[in-house]
Protein backbone atom coordinates (compact mmCIF):
# COMPACT_ATOMS: atom_id res chain seq x y z
CA UNK A 1 0.00 0.00 0.00
CA UNK A 2 1.27 3.47 -0.90
CA UNK A 3 1.99 5.67 2.13
CA UNK A 4 3.14 9.18 2.95
CA UNK A 5 4.41 11.02 6.04
CA UNK A 6 3.47 14.35 7.61
CA UNK A 7 6.58 15.92 6.08
CA UNK A 8 5.56 14.64 2.64
CA UNK A 9 2.13 16.22 3.03
CA UNK A 10 3.49 19.56 4.30
CA UNK A 11 6.06 19.73 1.51
CA UNK A 12 3.48 19.12 -1.21
CA UNK A 13 0.88 21.57 0.13
CA UNK A 14 3.49 24.27 0.87
CA UNK A 15 3.10 27.28 3.13
CA UNK A 16 -0.43 28.63 2.65
CA UNK A 17 -3.46 30.04 4.44
CA UNK A 18 -3.55 27.32 7.09
CA UNK A 19 0.06 27.94 8.14
CA UNK A 20 -0.54 31.69 8.03
CA UNK A 21 -3.32 31.23 10.61
CA UNK A 22 -1.00 29.22 12.85
CA UNK A 23 1.74 31.83 12.38
CA UNK A 24 -0.59 34.67 13.38
CA UNK A 25 -1.90 32.85 16.46
CA UNK A 26 1.49 31.61 17.68
CA UNK A 27 3.06 34.97 16.85
CA UNK A 28 0.53 36.80 19.01
CA UNK A 29 1.49 34.43 21.83
CA UNK A 30 5.09 35.56 21.44
CA UNK A 31 4.02 39.21 21.35
CA UNK A 32 2.30 38.64 24.69
CA UNK A 33 5.41 37.00 26.19
CA UNK A 34 7.72 39.76 24.93
CA UNK A 35 5.44 42.46 26.37
CA UNK A 36 5.30 40.77 29.78
CA UNK A 37 9.11 40.45 29.86
CA UNK A 38 9.75 44.04 28.71
CA UNK A 39 7.18 45.24 31.23
CA UNK A 40 9.71 44.42 33.96
CA UNK A 41 11.93 47.27 32.75
CA UNK A 42 9.20 49.79 33.61
CA UNK A 43 7.23 48.23 36.46
CA UNK A 44 9.90 48.06 39.16
CA UNK A 45 10.79 51.76 39.41
CA UNK A 46 7.17 53.00 39.48
CA UNK A 47 6.09 50.40 42.05
CA UNK A 48 9.09 51.29 44.22
CA UNK A 49 8.10 54.93 44.09
CA UNK A 50 4.40 54.36 44.87
CA UNK A 51 4.77 51.81 47.68
CA UNK A 52 8.23 52.85 48.89
CA UNK A 53 9.66 49.32 48.69
CA UNK A 54 13.37 48.61 49.01
CA UNK A 55 15.66 48.14 45.98
CA UNK A 56 15.89 44.45 46.89
CA UNK A 57 12.10 44.10 46.79
CA UNK A 58 12.05 45.92 43.47
CA UNK A 59 14.52 43.41 42.04
CA UNK A 60 12.46 40.57 43.53
CA UNK A 61 9.54 41.65 41.35
CA UNK A 62 11.57 40.69 38.27
CA UNK A 63 13.04 37.58 39.86
CA UNK A 64 9.66 36.03 40.71
CA UNK A 65 8.50 36.46 37.11
CA UNK A 66 11.58 34.62 35.83
CA UNK A 67 11.10 31.97 38.51
CA UNK A 68 7.52 31.51 37.30
CA UNK A 69 8.72 31.30 33.70
CA UNK A 70 11.24 28.63 34.70
CA UNK A 71 8.51 26.50 36.30
CA UNK A 72 6.12 27.20 33.43
CA UNK A 73 8.65 26.29 30.73
CA UNK A 74 9.10 22.81 32.15
CA UNK A 75 5.46 22.23 33.17
CA UNK A 76 3.87 23.37 29.91
CA UNK A 77 6.37 21.34 27.91
CA UNK A 78 5.40 18.14 29.70
CA UNK A 79 1.66 18.90 29.46
CA UNK A 80 2.05 19.65 25.75
CA UNK A 81 3.67 16.27 25.04
CA UNK A 82 1.19 14.40 27.24
CA UNK A 83 -2.14 16.14 26.54
CA UNK A 84 -1.60 18.07 23.32
CA UNK A 85 -0.39 21.44 22.08
CA UNK A 86 -3.86 23.02 22.01
CA UNK A 87 -4.39 22.21 25.70
CA UNK A 88 -1.36 24.33 26.57
CA UNK A 89 -2.35 27.13 24.19
CA UNK A 90 -5.70 27.49 25.97
CA UNK A 91 -4.67 27.01 29.61
CA UNK A 92 -1.58 29.23 29.46
CA UNK A 93 -3.49 31.98 27.67
CA UNK A 94 -6.26 31.92 30.28
CA UNK A 95 -3.69 32.05 33.10
CA UNK A 96 -1.62 34.85 31.59
CA UNK A 97 -4.53 37.07 30.55
CA UNK A 98 -6.64 36.55 33.67
CA UNK A 99 -3.94 37.02 36.29
CA UNK A 100 -2.21 39.69 34.22
CA UNK A 101 -5.37 41.77 34.39
CA UNK A 102 -5.96 40.98 38.07
CA UNK A 103 -2.42 42.10 38.93
CA UNK A 104 -3.42 45.59 37.80
CA UNK A 105 -5.86 45.61 40.74
CA UNK A 106 -3.29 44.54 43.34
CA UNK A 107 -3.92 46.30 46.67
CA UNK A 108 -0.34 45.86 47.92
CA UNK A 109 3.14 44.76 47.01
CA UNK A 110 2.86 41.16 48.24
CA UNK A 111 -0.33 40.59 46.25
CA UNK A 112 1.33 42.02 43.14
CA UNK A 113 4.35 39.77 43.71
CA UNK A 114 2.21 36.64 43.94
CA UNK A 115 0.11 37.47 40.88
CA UNK A 116 3.14 38.30 38.73
CA UNK A 117 4.68 34.95 39.71
CA UNK A 118 1.67 33.14 38.25
CA UNK A 119 1.75 35.38 35.18
CA UNK A 120 5.35 34.21 34.77
CA UNK A 121 4.17 30.60 34.84
CA UNK A 122 1.68 31.39 32.06
CA UNK A 123 4.27 33.24 29.98
CA UNK A 124 6.60 30.24 30.32
CA UNK A 125 4.55 28.53 27.59
CA UNK A 126 6.17 30.61 24.85
CA UNK A 127 8.32 27.72 23.61
CA UNK A 128 5.18 25.60 23.06
CA UNK A 129 3.80 28.28 20.73
CA UNK A 130 7.06 28.17 18.77
CA UNK A 131 7.22 24.36 18.58
CA UNK A 132 3.54 24.17 17.62
CA UNK A 133 4.12 26.58 14.74
CA UNK A 134 7.24 24.76 13.51
CA UNK A 135 5.36 21.47 13.38
CA UNK A 136 3.21 22.92 10.58
CA UNK A 137 6.09 24.25 8.46
CA UNK A 138 7.73 22.26 5.61
CA UNK A 139 11.33 21.26 6.36
CA UNK A 140 12.83 23.03 3.35
CA UNK A 141 12.17 26.58 4.54
CA UNK A 142 11.60 26.02 8.25
CA UNK A 143 14.60 28.19 9.15
CA UNK A 144 13.36 31.22 7.24
CA UNK A 145 9.87 30.98 8.74
CA UNK A 146 11.27 30.68 12.25
CA UNK A 147 13.14 33.93 11.73
CA UNK A 148 9.97 35.59 10.42
CA UNK A 149 8.14 34.22 13.44
CA UNK A 150 10.76 35.81 15.72
CA UNK A 151 9.82 39.27 14.43
CA UNK A 152 6.71 38.95 16.61
CA UNK A 153 8.98 39.06 19.67
CA UNK A 154 10.64 42.26 18.45
CA UNK A 155 7.19 43.68 17.73
CA UNK A 156 6.18 42.94 21.32
CA UNK A 157 9.22 44.68 22.82
CA UNK A 158 8.72 47.82 20.70
CA UNK A 159 4.98 47.81 21.40
CA UNK A 160 5.54 47.57 25.16
CA UNK A 161 8.03 50.46 25.11
CA UNK A 162 5.55 52.57 23.14
CA UNK A 163 2.73 51.64 25.48
CA UNK A 164 4.79 52.50 28.55
CA UNK A 165 5.83 55.81 27.05
CA UNK A 166 2.19 56.84 26.59
CA UNK A 167 0.49 55.18 29.56
CA UNK A 168 2.96 55.91 32.36
CA UNK A 169 3.09 59.58 31.48
CA UNK A 170 -0.70 60.00 31.21
CA UNK A 171 -2.22 57.32 33.48
CA UNK A 172 -0.58 54.83 35.87
CA UNK A 173 1.26 51.50 36.04
CA UNK A 174 -2.06 49.73 36.70
CA UNK A 175 -3.28 50.71 33.24
CA UNK A 176 0.00 49.49 31.78
CA UNK A 177 -0.49 46.05 33.38
CA UNK A 178 -4.06 45.78 32.16
CA UNK A 179 -3.27 46.87 28.58
CA UNK A 180 -0.25 44.55 28.44
CA UNK A 181 -2.60 41.60 29.03
CA UNK A 182 -4.71 42.45 25.96
CA UNK A 183 -2.77 40.30 23.40
CA UNK A 184 -3.68 37.18 25.40
CA UNK A 185 -7.34 38.20 25.53
CA UNK A 186 -7.29 38.62 21.75
CA UNK A 187 -6.21 34.99 21.36
CA UNK A 188 -9.15 33.49 23.23
CA UNK A 189 -11.96 34.05 20.64
CA UNK A 190 -9.81 32.44 17.91
CA UNK A 191 -8.84 29.34 19.88
CA UNK A 192 -11.63 27.17 18.47
CA UNK A 193 -10.25 27.44 14.92
CA UNK A 194 -6.69 26.46 15.86
CA UNK A 195 -5.72 22.94 14.72
CA UNK A 196 -3.90 20.36 16.78
CA UNK A 197 -0.42 19.53 15.52
CA UNK A 198 -0.63 16.60 13.06
CA UNK A 199 2.82 15.50 14.20
CA UNK A 200 1.60 15.26 17.79
CA UNK A 201 -1.49 13.32 16.65
CA UNK A 202 0.71 10.89 14.73
CA UNK A 203 2.98 10.42 17.73
CA UNK A 204 -0.15 9.53 19.74
CA UNK A 205 -1.21 7.02 17.06
CA UNK A 206 -4.27 9.12 16.23
CA UNK A 207 -3.73 8.74 12.51
CA UNK A 208 -7.31 9.44 11.46
CA UNK A 209 -7.34 12.73 13.40
CA UNK A 210 -3.99 13.70 11.89
CA UNK A 211 -5.28 12.90 8.41
CA UNK A 212 -8.35 15.07 9.01
CA UNK A 213 -6.16 18.02 10.07
CA UNK A 214 -3.95 17.62 6.98
CA UNK A 215 -7.01 17.42 4.71
CA UNK A 216 -8.40 20.68 6.13
CA UNK A 217 -5.00 22.31 5.67
CA UNK A 218 -4.77 21.07 2.08
CA UNK A 219 -8.24 22.45 1.30
CA UNK A 220 -7.33 25.83 2.81
CA UNK A 221 -4.11 25.89 0.78
CA UNK A 222 -5.94 24.75 -2.37
CA UNK A 223 -3.61 21.77 -2.64
CA UNK A 224 -3.95 17.99 -2.63
CA UNK A 225 -2.48 15.46 -0.22
CA UNK A 226 -0.16 12.74 -1.54
CA UNK A 227 -1.73 9.49 -2.67
CA UNK A 228 -1.97 6.70 -0.10
CA UNK A 229 -2.30 6.37 3.66
CA UNK A 230 -0.69 8.59 6.29
CA UNK A 231 1.99 6.86 8.38
CA UNK A 232 4.07 8.15 11.26
CA UNK A 233 7.20 7.24 9.28
CA UNK A 234 7.55 5.85 5.79
CA UNK A 235 6.94 2.09 5.59
CA UNK A 236 9.79 1.74 3.11
CA UNK A 237 12.32 2.62 5.81
CA UNK A 238 11.18 -0.19 8.07
CA UNK A 239 12.68 -3.05 6.09
CA UNK A 240 16.12 -1.49 6.24
CA UNK A 241 16.15 -0.37 9.83
CA UNK A 242 14.91 -3.59 11.35
CA UNK A 243 17.96 -5.45 10.03
CA UNK A 244 20.65 -2.90 10.81
CA UNK A 245 22.01 -1.01 13.76
CA UNK A 246 20.72 2.58 13.59
CA UNK A 247 23.07 5.52 13.64
CA UNK A 248 22.74 7.35 16.99
CA UNK A 249 22.03 10.65 15.27
CA UNK A 250 19.21 9.15 13.23
CA UNK A 251 17.47 7.06 15.87
CA UNK A 252 14.66 9.62 16.03
CA UNK A 253 13.85 8.67 12.43
CA UNK A 254 13.16 4.96 13.19
CA UNK A 255 9.65 4.18 11.93
CA UNK A 256 6.79 3.65 14.33
CA UNK A 257 3.68 2.22 12.73
CA UNK A 258 0.26 3.23 13.84
CA UNK A 259 -0.47 0.11 15.88
CA UNK A 260 3.00 -0.51 17.29
CA UNK A 261 3.44 -0.07 21.05
CA UNK A 262 6.98 -0.62 22.32
CA UNK A 263 8.03 -1.22 25.91
CA UNK A 264 9.27 2.36 26.06
CA UNK A 265 5.85 3.65 24.96
CA UNK A 266 4.27 1.71 27.82
CA UNK A 267 6.75 3.17 30.28
CA UNK A 268 6.08 6.69 28.99
CA UNK A 269 2.35 6.19 29.39
CA UNK A 270 2.73 4.91 32.95
CA UNK A 271 5.45 7.08 34.41
CA UNK A 272 5.20 10.19 32.23
CA UNK A 273 7.80 12.72 33.29
CA UNK A 274 10.31 10.12 34.52
CA UNK A 275 10.27 8.34 31.18
CA UNK A 276 10.59 11.65 29.33
CA UNK A 277 13.69 12.55 31.35
CA UNK A 278 15.14 9.10 30.75
CA UNK A 279 14.74 9.59 27.03
CA UNK A 280 16.22 13.12 27.11
CA UNK A 281 19.25 11.78 28.97
CA UNK A 282 19.51 8.58 26.97
CA UNK A 283 22.72 7.68 25.17
CA UNK A 284 21.48 9.03 21.84
CA UNK A 285 20.26 12.40 23.14
CA UNK A 286 22.47 13.06 26.18
CA UNK A 287 25.09 15.13 24.36
CA UNK A 288 22.51 17.24 22.53
CA UNK A 289 20.48 17.78 25.70
CA UNK A 290 23.40 18.91 27.88
CA UNK A 291 24.78 21.22 25.20
CA UNK A 292 21.34 22.71 24.57
CA UNK A 293 20.92 23.38 28.28
CA UNK A 294 24.18 25.30 28.41
CA UNK A 295 23.62 27.28 25.20
CA UNK A 296 20.10 28.27 26.29
CA UNK A 297 21.56 29.39 29.63
CA UNK A 298 24.29 31.40 27.92
CA UNK A 299 21.92 32.98 25.38
CA UNK A 300 19.49 34.07 28.09
CA UNK A 301 22.33 35.37 30.26
CA UNK A 302 23.70 37.48 27.41
CA UNK A 303 20.33 38.62 25.97
CA UNK A 304 18.83 39.91 29.20
CA UNK A 305 22.16 41.24 30.37
CA UNK A 306 22.77 43.37 27.29
CA UNK A 307 19.18 44.65 27.38
CA UNK A 308 19.42 45.50 31.08
CA UNK A 309 22.82 47.18 31.02
CA UNK A 310 22.60 49.15 27.76
CA UNK A 311 21.86 52.51 29.35
CA UNK A 312 24.66 52.21 31.92
CA UNK A 313 27.36 50.90 29.60
CA UNK A 314 26.62 53.40 26.83
CA UNK A 315 27.03 56.49 29.00
CA UNK A 316 30.64 56.99 30.07
CA UNK A 317 29.96 60.43 31.52
CA UNK A 318 28.08 59.06 34.53
CA UNK A 319 30.03 58.35 37.65
CA UNK A 320 30.97 54.77 38.46
CA UNK A 321 29.02 54.86 41.70
CA UNK A 322 25.69 55.56 40.00
CA UNK A 323 23.20 52.79 40.60
CA UNK A 324 21.42 51.12 37.69
CA UNK A 325 18.06 51.44 39.42
CA UNK A 326 18.75 55.11 40.03
CA UNK A 327 19.64 55.56 36.39
CA UNK A 328 16.38 54.02 35.27
CA UNK A 329 14.50 56.43 37.52
CA UNK A 330 16.59 59.41 36.45
CA UNK A 331 14.73 60.24 33.29
CA UNK A 332 11.87 58.34 31.68
CA UNK A 333 12.75 59.56 28.21
CA UNK A 334 16.21 57.99 28.40
CA UNK A 335 14.73 54.68 29.48
CA UNK A 336 12.25 54.58 26.59
CA UNK A 337 14.91 55.66 24.10
CA UNK A 338 17.32 52.96 25.26
CA UNK A 339 14.57 50.35 25.12
CA UNK A 340 13.72 51.35 21.56
CA UNK A 341 17.36 51.16 20.51
CA UNK A 342 17.94 47.70 21.99
CA UNK A 343 14.64 46.42 20.61
CA UNK A 344 15.16 47.73 17.09
CA UNK A 345 18.65 46.22 17.08
CA UNK A 346 16.99 42.81 16.90
CA UNK A 347 15.66 43.43 13.37
CA UNK A 348 19.05 43.33 11.55
CA UNK A 349 19.99 40.29 13.63
CA UNK A 350 16.86 38.48 12.49
CA UNK A 351 17.46 39.43 8.87
CA UNK A 352 21.06 38.20 9.06
CA UNK A 353 20.03 34.88 10.59
CA UNK A 354 17.32 34.48 7.93
CA UNK A 355 19.96 34.83 5.21
CA UNK A 356 22.32 32.34 6.83
CA UNK A 357 20.24 29.67 8.56
CA UNK A 358 19.04 27.72 5.51
CA UNK A 359 22.26 28.39 3.60
CA UNK A 360 25.09 27.64 6.06
CA UNK A 361 23.01 25.52 8.42
CA UNK A 362 21.94 25.84 12.05
CA UNK A 363 25.24 25.02 13.77
CA UNK A 364 27.43 27.31 11.68
CA UNK A 365 24.97 30.21 11.96
CA UNK A 366 24.66 29.90 15.74
CA UNK A 367 28.41 29.59 16.16
CA UNK A 368 29.19 32.63 13.99
CA UNK A 369 26.59 34.84 15.68
CA UNK A 370 27.74 33.87 19.19
CA UNK A 371 31.35 34.68 18.36
CA UNK A 372 30.28 37.92 16.62
CA UNK A 373 28.35 38.99 19.73
CA UNK A 374 31.45 38.23 21.76
CA UNK A 375 33.55 40.36 19.39
CA UNK A 376 31.17 43.34 19.62
CA UNK A 377 31.40 43.32 23.42
CA UNK A 378 35.23 43.07 23.43
CA UNK A 379 36.06 46.80 23.12
CA UNK A 380 33.65 47.58 25.98
CA UNK A 381 36.17 46.02 28.34
CA UNK A 382 37.51 49.59 28.37
CA UNK A 383 35.55 52.83 28.47
CA UNK A 384 34.63 54.11 24.99
CA UNK A 385 32.85 57.24 23.80
CA UNK A 386 29.07 57.13 23.98
CA UNK A 387 28.40 56.75 20.24
CA UNK A 388 30.90 53.91 19.86
CA UNK A 389 29.55 52.15 22.96
CA UNK A 390 25.97 52.39 21.66
CA UNK A 391 27.05 51.06 18.26
CA UNK A 392 28.85 48.10 19.82
CA UNK A 393 25.87 47.26 22.03
CA UNK A 394 23.55 47.57 19.03
CA UNK A 395 25.65 45.01 17.16
CA UNK A 396 25.89 42.72 20.18
CA UNK A 397 22.11 42.77 20.68
CA UNK A 398 21.54 42.07 16.98
CA UNK A 399 23.89 39.07 16.95
CA UNK A 400 22.56 37.80 20.26
CA UNK A 401 18.98 37.92 19.02
CA UNK A 402 19.92 36.21 15.75
CA UNK A 403 21.76 33.43 17.56
CA UNK A 404 18.91 32.90 20.03
CA UNK A 405 16.40 32.70 17.17
CA UNK A 406 18.37 29.96 15.41
CA UNK A 407 18.72 28.16 18.74
CA UNK A 408 14.93 28.23 19.19
CA UNK A 409 14.66 26.69 15.72
CA UNK A 410 17.35 24.07 16.27
CA UNK A 411 16.10 22.69 19.60
CA UNK A 412 12.66 21.48 18.36
CA UNK A 413 14.35 19.89 15.34
CA UNK A 414 16.67 17.81 17.55
CA UNK A 415 13.99 16.08 19.60
CA UNK A 416 11.40 13.54 18.40
CA UNK A 417 7.74 14.56 18.52
CA UNK A 418 6.93 12.42 21.58
CA UNK A 419 9.22 14.48 23.85
CA UNK A 420 9.74 17.64 21.77
CA UNK A 421 7.96 20.10 24.05
CA UNK A 422 9.39 18.50 27.19
CA UNK A 423 12.92 18.66 25.80
CA UNK A 424 12.62 22.26 24.61
CA UNK A 425 10.80 23.22 27.81
CA UNK A 426 13.64 21.91 29.97
CA UNK A 427 16.20 23.82 27.89
CA UNK A 428 14.16 27.04 28.08
CA UNK A 429 13.75 26.55 31.85
CA UNK A 430 17.53 26.27 32.25
CA UNK A 431 17.80 29.42 30.15
CA UNK A 432 15.57 31.34 32.57
CA UNK A 433 18.14 30.65 35.30
CA UNK A 434 20.54 32.71 33.18
CA UNK A 435 17.99 35.53 33.18
CA UNK A 436 17.85 35.43 36.98
CA UNK A 437 21.61 35.12 37.56
CA UNK A 438 22.70 37.73 35.02
CA UNK A 439 21.65 40.89 36.92
CA UNK A 440 23.07 39.52 40.17
CA UNK A 441 26.48 38.94 38.60
CA UNK A 442 26.93 41.60 35.93
CA UNK A 443 25.08 44.50 37.56
CA UNK A 444 26.68 43.75 40.88
CA UNK A 445 30.13 44.04 39.30
CA UNK A 446 29.27 47.31 37.59
CA UNK A 447 27.97 48.82 40.81
CA UNK A 448 31.33 47.91 42.32
CA UNK A 449 33.15 49.77 39.52
CA UNK A 450 34.32 46.53 37.86
CA UNK A 451 33.19 47.12 34.28
CA UNK A 452 36.05 45.05 32.84
CA UNK A 453 35.19 42.07 35.05
CA UNK A 454 31.48 42.32 34.16
CA UNK A 455 32.14 42.38 30.42
CA UNK A 456 34.67 39.54 30.76
CA UNK A 457 31.89 37.40 32.25
CA UNK A 458 29.76 38.05 29.16
CA UNK A 459 32.72 37.34 26.89
CA UNK A 460 33.49 34.03 28.57
CA UNK A 461 29.88 32.83 28.57
CA UNK A 462 29.36 33.75 24.89
CA UNK A 463 32.66 32.20 23.81
CA UNK A 464 31.84 28.93 25.54
CA UNK A 465 28.36 29.03 23.95
CA UNK A 466 29.98 29.34 20.51
CA UNK A 467 32.21 26.35 21.25
CA UNK A 468 29.18 24.37 22.45
CA UNK A 469 27.42 25.09 19.14
CA UNK A 470 30.38 23.55 17.29
CA UNK A 471 30.08 20.46 19.49
CA UNK A 472 26.40 19.84 18.72
CA UNK A 473 26.29 16.26 17.34
CA UNK A 474 23.97 16.88 14.39
CA UNK A 475 23.02 19.42 11.76
CA UNK A 476 19.25 19.64 11.27
CA UNK A 477 19.01 21.75 8.11
CA UNK A 478 16.40 20.15 5.82
CA UNK A 479 15.92 17.25 8.25
CA UNK A 480 12.50 15.80 9.06
CA UNK A 481 11.40 16.82 12.56
CA UNK A 482 10.54 13.24 13.51
Largest sheet: 2 strands, parallel
Number of alpha- plus pi-helical segments:
23
Radius of gyration: 23 Å
Q: What's the arrangement of strands in the largest beta sheet?
A: 1-2
- Quaternary structure: single chain
The stretches of 5 or more residues where confidence is low (pLDDT under 50) are: 234-271, 321-333
Nearest-integer average pLDDT: 77
- Portion in strands: under 5%
Span of the ends, CA to CA: 22 Å
Shape: globular
Strand tally, please? 2
State the helicity in percent bands. Answer: over 70%
Category from helices, strands and their pairing: mainly alpha
Q: What order do the helices and strands follow?
A: EHHHHHHHHHHHHEHHHHHHHHHHH
How would you characterize the overall build of this protein?
This protein has 482 residues and is an all-alpha fold. The protein is 73% helix and 1% strand. It has 23 helices and two strands. It has helices at residues 6-13, 17-38, 40-51, 55-83, 85-103, 109-123, 126-134, 142-170, 173-180, 182-187, 198-203, 207-220, 238-241, 263-271, 273-280, 286-313, 324-330, 332-344, 346-357, 362-377, 386-414, 420-447, 451-471; strands at 3-4, 229-230. Strands 1-2 form a two-stranded parallel ribbon. The longest helix has 29 residues, at 55-83. It is globular. The chain starts with a strand and ends in an 11-residue tail after the last helix. Mean pLDDT is 77; it is low at 234-271 and 321-333. Residues 22-477 form the Major facilitator superfamily (MFS) profile domain. Keywords: Membrane, Transmembrane, Transmembrane helix, Transport. It is found in: Membrane. InterPro entries: MFS_dom, MFS_sugar_transport-like, MFS_trans_sf.
Amino acid sequence: METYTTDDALTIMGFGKSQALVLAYAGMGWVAEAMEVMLLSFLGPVVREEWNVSPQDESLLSSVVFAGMLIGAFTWGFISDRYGRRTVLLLSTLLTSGLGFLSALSPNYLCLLALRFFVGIGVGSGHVFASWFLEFVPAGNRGTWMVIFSFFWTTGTVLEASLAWVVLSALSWRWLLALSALPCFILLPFFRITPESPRYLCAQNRMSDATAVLERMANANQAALPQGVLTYHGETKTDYITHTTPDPEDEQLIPIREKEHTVEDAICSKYGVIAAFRKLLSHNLLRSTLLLWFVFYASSFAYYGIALLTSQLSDVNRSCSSDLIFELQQKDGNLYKDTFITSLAEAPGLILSALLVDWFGRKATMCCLMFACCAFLGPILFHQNELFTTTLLFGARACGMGGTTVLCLYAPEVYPTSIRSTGVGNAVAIGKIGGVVCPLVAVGMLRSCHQMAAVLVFELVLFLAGVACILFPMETKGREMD
